[in-house]
Automatic annotation (TrEMBL):
Subunit structure of this chain's protein: Homotrimer.
NCBIfam families reported in the protein's UniProt record: lipid_A_lpxA, PRK05289.1
Annotated metabolic or biological route of this protein: Glycolipid biosynthesis; lipid IV(A) biosynthesis; lipid IV(A) from (3R)-3-hydroxytetradecanoyl-[acyl-carrier-protein] and UDP-N-acetyl-alpha-D-glucosamine: step 1/6
Positions of transmembrane segments: none
Main location: cytoplasm
Gene: lpxA
Domain of life: Bacteria
Family: Belongs to the transferase hexapeptide repeat family. LpxA subfamily.
Keywords associated with the record: Acyltransferase, Cytoplasm, Lipid A biosynthesis, Lipid biosynthesis, Lipid metabolism, Repeat, Transferase
Gene3D superfamilies: Hexapeptide repeat proteins, Udp N-acetylglucosamine O-acyltransferase, C-terminal domain
Name this protein carries in UniProt: Acyl-[acyl-carrier-protein]--UDP-N-acetylglucosamine O-acyltransferase
GO cellular component, one term: cytoplasm
Keyword Lipid biosynthesis: yes
Length: 258
């Protein structure tokens, strides 16, 4: 049996692995599924059709799986899916999806959500993402792997953040942030590449060199965007790290931060 503190309230319909720990005064709803080795701290609320993978750690006072903060939501059966080995710190809020957004909010593996951060309805967050204190993602935001979002950042709905991007503290992000790039300010603009993040992510010197050249062509040359993309397609797109950047820019719907 799961180790449930006597003061916790766990609905009989909830499915908890035998190795789950639930702390004092926490509340777990009827549609919740929690995987092996997950620790639920005190005063945590998990509700809705929420699935938690293995070895997650939810700290005190966080709220996971509550109804979307969307005026159009009318109680439809939507879900929240969280992967493995995530840390969800104090007062974090992660909401269910909406029908209009595909019905699910998704969080991958090994993410760190620091105190008071927020993931809204229909967001899709990858792996090894950091949301620092007070960072907030509006609805339908897509965050690729290994993105670092500093404190007090706000990200506009439907915006995409490319992998290994770095969002500086206090930034207001209203357009897509290309992979590997650093942005800052209100409204956020490009200020360079996240070279430290690439090095920590295991990129070789050659890969980083190609990313630097792609960045120069896209954002520092006098070429128009379509001309720059065509040049990258011709010269560097055989390399996966550049192909990912090109594809990200080409598929942007909100426009790309410049």
């Amino acid at each position: 049996m799961a180790q449930v503190h006597p003061t916790a309230v766990v609905h009989p319909g909830a499915r908890l692995h035998d190795t789950v720990e639930v702390g004092p005064f926490s509340v777990i709803g009827p549609q919740v599924v929690i995987g092996a080795g997950t620790r639920i701290g005190p005063h945590v609320v998990i509700e809705g059709r929420t699935t938690l993978g293995e070895r997650n750690h939810l700290f005190q006072f966080c709220s996971v799986g509550a109804a979307p903060q969307d005026l159009k939501y009318a109680g439809e059966d939507t879900e929240l899916v969280i992967g493995d080995e995530n840390q969800i710190r104090e007062f974090v809020t992660v909401n269910l999806g909406t029908v209009a957004g595909g019905g699910a909010t998704r969080l991958g593996h090994r993410n760190l959500l620091l105190a008071n951060s927020h993931i809204a309805h229909d967001c899709v967050v990858g792996n090894e993402v950091l949301l620092a204190n007070g960072a907030a993602l509006a609805g339908h935001v897509v965050v690729e792997d290994s993105v670092k979002i500093s404190g007090l950042v706000a990200v506009h709905q439907f915006t995409r953040l490319g992998r290994y991007a770095f969002i500086s503290g206090g930034s207001m992000v209203t357009m897509d942030v290309p992979p590997y790039c650093t942005v800052q300010g209100d409204r956020a603009t490009l200020v360079g590449l996240n070279v430290v993040g690439l090095e920590r992510g295991g990129f070789t010197e050659e890969q980083i060199g190609r990313v630097k050249e792609a960045y120069r062509i896209l954002f520092r040359s006098k070429l128009g965007l379509h001309e720059a993309l065509a040049q990258l397609r011709g010269e560097l797109s055989a390399h996966p790290e550049v192909e990912h950047l090109v594809r990200f820019v080409e598929t942007s719907k909100r426009g790309v931060t410049r």
